[in-house]
Write a structure and sequence with these properties.
Layout (H helix, E strand, L loop, with lengths): L3 E3 L3 H12 L7 E9 L5 E9 L4 E2 L8 E4 L10 E6 L10 H9 L2 E7 L16 H18 L12 E6 L1 H10 L3 E2 L1 H9 L4 H6 L26 E2 L8 E5 L18 E6 L11 H7 L4 E5 L16 E2 L2 E2 L9 H20 L1
Parallel strand pairs: 2-5, 6-7, 6-8, 8-11, 11-12, 12-13
Antiparallel strand pairs: 1-13, 2-3, 3-7, 4-5, 9-10, 14-15
């Protein structure tokens, strides 16, 4: 059985009790639509939202979300908006199970396909704009949704959060106020020997898919890319980091974060050594809620694919021996739902 080693405060336990009293996600289903954000780098966004319409299983490549495609949104007020950021080389459907759960709970979830950093196109990795552009893409999605005639008035602006896996964890923590220096990646990889997954990915062959993996973009950067990156978005009120890439953040910027942060790490993460990434965040941000998933690998936080997903770090559909991702994912969804319910009950 997969276990969380976790540190939760009493308010979180109260939130868990409230969730259980509410019944199974308010007897709602998850609707599904796509939302396009125009610009120099147009974005495709998957929207998951509460609906009373019947859901069914859709076959979408390796993913099989259970949703009501194109269904009308439920009339009740939204609980909030959650931005969802995949890892390097991923897709907007990497975490469809988590998005579906949050939509059933009453949230609008916007899962972004990051331009220049998805399974079809990873050109942004060496562009010199990676650390600033990736978080800004999320802010532009937020701009578009708040300006949307359909969604803008329904989003309670004090209830906007974000969830990110791997590179997505970097992205949402940058929105929370953490500051990055690209040169820290080079310094890190020159001085440690026990973070080979992170450091080797910077040298991955071009064209290799990396469904959820964070590389060390332009690890030897100098000049403008080596400057400190600060791209906070004060509209973001709480974030969840799943096996985040974090070594590039400056240690002094982490304790300056004022919003609630939840960090969930994988015990057997062979891609991002937790002590340099998630554990580094927790060590420098004492207010963060933290847990480690026993037996889990880096990809444990992604939906379970029905087919292999080869990547520069291995098969993103595989699991460490003895780890049952299908059994674990509902517990992950519950933990994330509890965290947001705690903030906005």
């Amino acid at each position: 059985m997969t276990l969380f080693r976790t540190l939760l405060n009493p308010a979180a336990l109260l939130a868990a009790a409230l969730l259980s009293l509410a019944g199974p996600a308010g007897a709602q289903n998850a609707g599904y639509r796509t939302f396009n954000v125009a610009g120099d780098a147009p974005m495709t966004v998957a929207l998951f939202y509460p609906t009373a319409a019947a859901a069914r299983t859709l076959s979408m490549g390796p993913w099989q979300p259970v949703v009501a495609p194109g269904a009308p949104a439920a009339e009740a007020q939204l609980k909030g908006l959650i931005l969802l950021s995949h890892g390097t080389g991923g897709t907007e459907l990497n975490h469809h199970n988590l998005a579906t759960r949050l939509a059933k709970d009453g949230y609008l979830v916007a899962a972004v396909r990051h331009p220049g950093d998805n399974w079809e196109d990873r050109s942004m990795i060496t562009s010199g704009r990676y650390f600033s552009e990736r978080p800004r893409q999320l802010s532009r999605v937020l701009d578009a949704l708040l300006a949307s005639p359909e969604w803008g008035k329904r989003i309670p602006v004090e209830h906007i959060g974000a969830v990110g896996h791997s590179a997505g964890g970097y992205s949402v923590l940058a929105l929370a106020g953490a500051q990055a220096e690209a040169q820290r990646a080079a310094q890190h990889c020159h001085t440690v020997q026990d973070d080979p997954g992170f450091c080797s990915l910077a040298k991955a062959p071009a064209g290799m898919q990396s469904s959820g993996v964070q590389a060390a973009p332009a690890a030897g950067a100098t000049g403008p890319q080596a400057e400190r990156v600060s791209v906070p978005d004060p509209r973001i009120r709480a974030v969840v980091l799943l096996a985040p890439m974090a070594v590039v953040f400056t240690p002094e910027s982490l304790p300056a974060i004022k919003i609630p942060v939840r960090v969930i790490m994988a015990e057997q993460d062979a891609v991002l050594n937790g002590k340099y990434h998630g554990g580094y965040v927790v060590a420098n941000l004492s207010s963060a809620q933290a847990s480690t998933v026993a037996g889990a690998g880096h990809f444990a936080f992604m939906a379970q694919s029905a087919i292999p997903l080869p990547s520069a770090a291995g098969d993103a559909a595989s699991n460490p021996p003895g780890f049952d991702r299908v059994t674990f994912l509902p517990e992950l969804e519950r933990q994330v739902a509890i965290f947001f319910a705690e903030q906005w009950r």
